[in-house]
Write a structure and sequence with these properties.
The chain is α/β, with parallel strands linked by helices. It is built from 13 helices and 16 strands. The chain has a seven-stranded parallel sheet with strand order 8-7-6-9-10-11-12, with helices on both faces. The structure holds 1,4-dihydronicotinamide adenine dinucleotide and 2-oxo-3-(phosphonooxy)propanoic acid.
């Protein structure tokens, strides 16, 4: 029996895939697994039973990944599961920036009842007119799940698309339309493009990347779209650029006290992934990941431990060990199991940066004493036996 706790509401389409072996708890301290969307977890203390955190979504900057790794907690996300939802809103954002659709709708709503709205609209409409996307240059920074979709669809709107991502994955590169211009520096995007959209994670290396220096390289009247994270854009600098007219529109999915109410800012209340489809996709993927991890020890889409898939367990016990990626760990595990007269049927070890994961299937059953001995090995961070 596993206990799960939800820090945000998670779609029932996913939650319904948890069977009778899973029970909900309102007490995070006793949970085996926590499901979360954007709730901030940095200040949380984690209970001793916690084995996994599943982020039903892409960005994991709300979760203390290293602290979790050190406490033997595997953190998962759901790559690509909400990318289409975000892509569609980015396109809407570009259209809202191109013409003053929002201003026009507000004007109609505020119209006094005794006037001739049809006649007045024809006089007034020039105030809300704009430009078309077709023929404009779009720069996409970050060609992951979302960036690739945005880049490809923009080509169908007649835009000339520039893409920049020095770490692009092979999968993303395969998915990218051949007509996308490969920018080798981010400055090329800043200098050439009429619309610039960012789709990178919030990391130390990306925070504040759109600042006054970056903006100074951009075209007069550029449109910047940020559906990734507020911290990627220096809030003071973007406000100054909007006030000065250098940036025509800043479309963001992240309200901050600095940007709300600034002329030229189109601020959306973090709706990128808030579609039925994205919420269902994320929840289903998150639940599948935690079930496979808790029931079989397999890791898929972890952001702090290596992925590792050894299939379902055979008749004997399966030992899973989370540990630091340092020499002689496997030697110590196998020596200990040999001393305990355990025959190893299967063994896999995977590593990712500072952390590693070893799965060992034995023919027999593992005692609590063996688990304690494994736990006491230096650099071991978590041991579990799946019976
Ligand atoms: N508004 C919303 O509701 C949503 C926002 N997001 C945000 O969007 C971000 C991107 O999401 P996905 O595309 O799904 O993630 P992803 O991980 O598939 O793609 C991120 C891409 O950024 C690239 N990258 C990293 N550093 C870079 C740099 N300095 N310059 C250029 N490229 C760089 C990576 O190589 C990768 O290809 C997430 O991290 C999250 O913060 C994601 C989903 C929903
Ligand atoms: O997946 C992401 O990174 C998002 O920003 C979506 O966040 P949400 O699940 O809507 O709170």
């Amino acid at each position: 029996m596993f206990k799960y706790h939800c820090l945000n509401p998670i779609s029932a389409v996913g939650m319904n895939k948890l069977d009778e072996n899973y029970v909900k708890t309102e007490n995070a301290d006793e949970a085996d697994v926590i499901l979360v969307r954007s709730a901030k977890m940095h200040e949380m203390e984690f209970g001793k039973n916690l084995k996994a955190i599943a982020r039903a979504g892409a960005g994991v900057n709300n979760i203390p990944l290293d602290k979790c790794a050190e406490e033997g907690i595997v953190v998962f996300n759901t790559p690509g599961a909400n990318a289409n939802g975000v892509k569609e809103l980015v396109i809407a954002g570009m259209l809202l920036a191109a013409r003053d659709v929002v201003g026009g709708i507000q004007w109609v709503q505020e119209f006094e009842e005794d006037g001739d709205i049809a006649k007045l609209a024809e006089k007034k409409k020039k105030a809300f007119a704009g430009t078309e996307l077709s023929g404009k240059k779009l720069g996409v920074i970050g060609l992951g799940a979302i960036g690739v979709l945005v880049a490809n669809v923009a080509t169908h709107l007649g835009m000339e698309v520039y893409g920049y991502d020095p770490y692009v994955s092979v999968d993303s590169a395969w998915r990218l339309s051949r007509s996308i211009h490969h920018a080798t520096t981010v400055d090329e995007i800043y200098k050439e493009c009429d619309y610039i959209t960012i789709h990178v994670p919030a990391l130390d290396s990306t925070k504040g990347m759109i600042d006054k220096n970056a903006i100074s390289l951009m075209k007069e009247g550029v449109v910047i779209l940020n559906f990734a994270r507020d911290v990627l854009v220096n809030q003071e600098d973007i406000v100054d650029a909007l006030v000065a007219g250098k940036v025509h529109r800043y479309v963001t999915d992240f309200p901050t006290k600095e940007i709300v109410g600034v002329k030229g800012a189109i601020v959306i209340p973090h709706l990128g992934a808030s579609t039925e489809e994205s919420e269902d996709n994320c929840a289903q993927m998150a639940v599948a990941e935690i079930r496979d991890f808790l029931e079989n020890g397999n890791i898929t889409h972890s952001v702090n431990y290596p992925d590792c898939n050894v299939g379902t367990k055979a008749d004997g016990d399966r030992i899973t060990i989370l540990h630091r990626n340092v020499p002689n760990m496997i030697g110590q595990f196998t020596t200990l199991l040999a001393q305990e007269n355990q025959n190893i049927a299967l063994m896999t070890n995977k590593s990712k940066k500072e952390y590693a994961y070893t799965v060992i299937d034995v023919d027999g059953s593992v005692s609590d004493e063996v688990v304690s001995k494994l736990e006491s090995i230096t650099d071991v961070l978590g041991v579990r036996v799946i019976k």
